[in-house]
Amino acid sequence: MTDEEFLPIIFKNIDELRFRLVRILEVFGFFFIFFLIFSITRVTLFGVSFPFITFDVYHNIPAQFLKLLEAHIIPSGTQLLVLKPTDGVSANIYTALFLSLIFAMPNIVYQIGKFIGPALKKSEKELIRVITVPASLLFAAGAFMGLWFVAPELFTIFHNFNIGLGAESTMGVMSFVSFLLLYVVSFGVAFEIPVFMYGLTRSGMVQAETWYKYWRYAIVGSLIFGMIFSPGVLGFTMMVMSLPMIALYFAGAYFAMRYQKKYGQKESNTVTEAL
Fold first, then answer.
1. 172/101 Cα distance (integer angstroms)
2. Which of 28, 122, 228, 271 is 20 to 30 A from 146 (CA-CA)?
3. Which residues pair with 50 in a beta bridge?
């Protein structure tokens, strides 16, 4: 292929990438601005109470979301502190970015699929179609589990240790936000393991037996992941994240083996009949 033939293809792909990025940023930016300038209030009309969107920059949706998390997660007696003048603004913006990413994710997945779609085979497109919904649900399930069930227990443990030392239990608002959001995203990513393993086996890149063969490496990798991405440097925070990952690894190996036994046998029979 000559430069005269190659360069137009490159420029076409760059233009398509730019177009998809603009579409992603449009939706992401809409949610980001919406969350920053509006709040949710309850309005009573004719005896019926319902949520209503009002303009409020200071008590916006990210601030309301943080208050909800504070009430659910932080133990009674622990006080959130603003240690620097910009901490409140930074925490609000980080939370708005997090919420915008969650709400814009369907569009992000759609735009990425439209960009890479022409380069995929029919079987690869079918694989993406099959795993998209389970992957989204597992990410949401992992994030929800980490946020709603595991995080309150961790903060209770931290609080009890602080009280045991005779120290006053306080926490910077930015430490709370960064600690929590990193933990939630890491939990969500960890729950993608079964989908990733199933996809590799279904595409034929990794045999199901391989997952069982290297299970020891998976355990070590899970512990390393938990050590890097779990908040703090304590061993039990690492184990809280690593143990579900190990269980999910074996779940992924099971479903990969189940697929290979079911459909691999059909493909073998088809080849035999053809011969």
1. 24
2. 28
3. 43
Amino acid at 253: A
Side-chain-side CA neighbours of residue 161 (13 Å): 7
pLDDT tens string, the chain, 275 residues long: the values are 555 555 565 656 788 889 999 999 999 999 999 999 999 998 888 778 888 999 999 999 999 999 999 999 998 888 889 988 899 999 999 999 989 988 888 888 888 878 887 777 787 778 777 887 788 788 888 888 888 888 888 888 888 888 888 888 888 999 899 888 888 888 888 888 998 898 889 888 899 999 999 999 999 998 888 887 765 555 667 787 788 889 999 999 999 999 888 876 554 444 334 33
Name the nearest CA neighbour of 219 among 195, 183, 245, 197. Answer: 245
* pTM of the predicted model as reported, rounded to 2 decimal places: 0.76
Tell me how far apart the alpha carbons of residues 124 and 118 are, in angstroms, rounded to a whole number: 11
Strand partners of residue 43 = 50
For residue 2, give both structure tokens: 């000559």
Single out the residue of 146, 149, 229, 234 nearest to residue 182, CA to CA: 229
Interacting residues of 127 by C-beta distance below 8 A, sequence separation 6+: 199, 202, 203
In angstroms, rounded to a whole number, what is the distance separating the alpha carbons of residues 138 and 74? 26
| Rounded CA separation 37/58 (Å) | 8
Question: Tokens at residue 8, please?
Answer: 């137009």
43 and 34 in contact (C-beta within 8 Å)? no
DSSP secondary-structure letter at 192?
A: T
